[in-house]
Each structure stands twice: as C-alpha cells, then as structure tokens.
Design goal:
68 residues, 2 helices
Length: 68
C-alpha cells in the first residue's frame, strides 16, 4: 500500500488563510466570539498554560560546552 505524499501549494494556503480571516471577521461582527477569545484561538503562545511552564538548565557533558 503506497503512502500519499502531500505537497505545499502557496496559492492554496493563501486561499485557506483568507477564508479563515473572513470566518474570523464574521464571528467577531456577529458577536459569536470576543476579540480576546479570537486572539486566544489564533495564538499558539496565548493558548499555552504558562503557569505550568518551567525553564531548566541542562548539565553540560564534557567536551560539549561553548567557551564564554
């Protein structure tokens, strides 16, 4: 069974983005969504729960460090 390989079509992607913009605009005008809700839906960072995020520093391995 052969696997289908997709491809990127910039023109198709442009049409998809325009359609999404029109949907967003329509939803805003109808009051179905607030600007803040729409921003959260469309933003990767805004949709993350940063209260559970943490920054860690990895221990460097011998020979795997950069001089300062």
């Amino acid at each position: 069974m052969a696997k289908e390989i997709g491809y990127y079509d910039p023109e198709e992607r442009s049409r998809e983005k325009e359609a999404a913009r029109l949907r967003d605009e329509s939803r805003l005008k109808s009051g179905a969504v607030s600007p803040d809700e729409l921003h959260r839906e469309n933003s990767l960072i805004a949709s993350l729960d940063l209260s559970k995020a943490r920054i860690v520093r990895r221990k460097s391995r011998p020979g795997n460090h950069r001089p300062r």
